[in-house]
Amino acid sequence: MVAVLGRSEQPKHRRIYDVVARIPRGRVATYGQIARLAGLPGQPRLVGYALSALPEGSRIPWHRVINAQGRVSLRGDGGPMADIQRHLLMREGVVFDGGGAISLTRFRWRPRGSEETRRGRRRSG
Is 1 within a domain? Predict the structure, then answer.
């Protein structure tokens, strides 16, 4: 089922989709990270709403967006999407630990020029 977007939401959703489309295969980003990169700091739930509004068959790699604990977020309807997301990520080489979490240190996407990249460089060097 495709959600109908209000006029005020469409540009925000487009910004979110543009950022998510840049996440490379085998990498993940958090909802909050996507919100910041889309110019929507403090709005991680909007990222979730936007991704849930994607039409079936969309080429936007929604499965690469996870929560801040490095986990797949479960949907309220209890559907199979969490299993599908986990399978798609594993197929790309993303590894889950025994508790079902992904190492953000290892698999987080750090786009060039972003604050996440600058913070990572300061820590490592």
Answer: no
Range of the domain at 104: 10-108
Cβ atoms 50, 10 nearer than 8 A: no
3-state secondary structure of 89: helix
Beta strands 65-66 and 29-30, pairing class: parallel
The pTM of this model reads 0.82
Rounded CA gap, 109 and 107, in Å?
A: 6
Helix (H) or strand (E) holding 25: none
Domain count, the chain: 1
Is there a domain that residue 4 lies in? no
CB atoms within 10 A of CB 115: 12
**How many C-beta atoms lie closer than 10 Å to residue 35's C-beta?**
24
Domain of residue 85, CATH code: 1.10.10.10
For residues 95 and 86, the answer to whether their CB atoms sit within 8 Å is no
Q: Comparing 50 with 125, which gets the higher pLDDT? A: 50
